[in-house]
Amino acid sequence: MPWKLTVRSGPRVDKSSFDDLPTALTALEADARALAESAPRRPLNARVRRFDPAEQVFARLEVSGPQRLVASVRAGLDVRGDGSVEAYRGRVRREVIETGEGESAYAALRRVLDGGTERAS
């Protein structure tokens, strides 16, 4: 299975494998939409600082592949505490994928990954 989907939400980590990128992206979008609906939408008060829901990463979903050991593509979505979604590429150094006018984060991620010509490391 060349494409791996990793969903991190709180302490829970779920991993799935897919034969092709479009199927993995469809599963990623479905999971992200469900998590965005269940986002807490309340501030987090730490001892030193208060974090508004938009500053919190409620869940992180990452698709990687197609290589097994060192994936050439790593990209995904961050679901924020307010239910908003932000697309990114990279793993250690995340780069936010800018959305075009009227484009969702899901569509922006598909745009960057379609064709497999973009390298996201």
Describe this structure in words.
The protein has 121 residues and is α+β, with helices and mostly antiparallel strands. It has one domain. Helix content is 21%, strand content 35%. It has two helices and eight strands; from the N terminus they run ββαββββββα. The protein has helices at residues 21-37, 105-113, and strands at 3-9, 12-18, 44-45, 50-51, 57-65, 73-80, 85-89, 95-96. A six-stranded antiparallel beta sheet has the order 2-1-5-6-7-8, with helices on one face. A two-stranded antiparallel ribbon has the order 3-4. The longest helix is centred in the first third of the chain and has 17 residues, at 21-37. The protein starts with a strand and ends in an 8-residue tail after the last helix. Mean pLDDT is 89; it is low at 116-121.
